[in-house]
Amino acid sequence: MPGVTRYLVTFGLLCLQTGSGAVTVTILEPIRSFGDEVGLIFVPEAHLSGDQYNTTARAIQEASHLRVWVAFTDNYFFGLVTEPELHRGVQQAIEEFKKAGMTSKSYVGVGHGWGGIFLQDYAKQSDLKAIVLMGATVSRKTQLRDYPVAVLTLAAELDGVTRITRVVQEYEKLTKDMATFYRGLYRTPVIFIEGANHAQFGAGTMWSEIDKGKDLKPEITDEEAHGVIGKYINDFLTVKFSSLEDQVDEALNRLLEPFLESAKKFQPFLDIRNLDTDGEESMWTVLAQMVFAGEYRDRVAISNKIAENPWFFGKQPSISLNHGNVVVATTALVTAKIYSDSLQMRTDKESPLEVNMKLVAKEALWQALSGQNDTALRSEPNTCASLNKYALFLALTLSTEHARERYFSVGRPIIVEEDAMRGANFLWAPSPLQTWEDKDGLHVRSIAMATPKEHYCKVLSTYRAMEWVNIDSLRVYP
């Protein structure tokens, strides 16, 4: 995010110098007369006003035994949070808390989307004791265990702006942390909110206008979403700030259940992501070779190695016999996008662009198994298109039952086109997988090269198929 941040810092300083875009703060006083105090400072999504978080804040207050003060920061220049204005807004909120009678110094930043991205950076050296990220995350390189204050990450299932596959990475960080620090579950929880979308972290009613219409249609009401959000934020705050052991124990127990339920939602995304590649091998390529082996898959031992360019160009699959069984060694190149925390790229897909597979051809398998009942192998030629269909099958299989039903009822389908053939490796290698969207769905055409010995395929990433099923198929086109 360096380039964007540098621009916005300069922009923010200009605003301060000219006196334009002065941040304003509105205070919402506690509804409880007694209890430990905590002050929430809301930092809004781009182009949303502070008052659009009123219902979210009140849901937190109603769920909590704490005395919850709230400050809505607003009037950012052009509706965009910048670093200088954020600092000014937080300091002003703290001063307003004090004037209104708050005596505690338990200040918590609550950031939504764009605001959350700036908040997570600002909070590292600030007066904030914790932060809540709604439809936002800490930076990719930041480990949750190393973050200096407690952080709650809330992920909406139908968030079309900060997609669920981005938050999956935060869940993965948390599970790794818990291997050595179990209380990370309570210090840095990552929680999945079923049926909610990005806009429902705020007022919710303008979901189609957020981020140029990239948000998805929610399946729960705004009231239901705010109730769940208020409950999870309260439990997080109670664990961190309550002085009453009974309240803390109850909140700890309440946080455990949504974590376990969230794990059921997040883990399938990690599982299918690791099918594409774990960095050393591609199990997706192994499965593809098994598809090509057909009914003889039980007699074929398959391995895979990931290669990078330019070495992948010269790699070839191999086949040999070992005590009557066929041994196949495949190679793959997983073409990934450049991942970034850039604000302009926060809606981007997290999955690889394509998977390049160099497989052993069916004819070569037939020759290795000569003398056996091989008529099926010879009569049913393989296609790379069949692998794209299998990628979709795997994505649907690993998705939840409700996600599958949603895809078939309202999602645009993946449409697998016939392979585009190339006559040689030097023609196949530079040709990317062809994909395009229209009102009918996502069209996918593999680039293929077939010889009697080898079958090369550029195919859909299983993780990209998963993203399409769960996220992109649900978008309104165009």
UniProtKB/TrEMBL annotation:
One of its GO terms (molecular function) is hydrolase activity. This is Alpha/beta hydrolase fold-5 domain-containing protein. Residues 40-203 form the Alpha/beta hydrolase fold-5 domain. Residues 1-22 form the signal peptide. It comes from Elysia crispata (lettuce slug). Keywords: Signal.
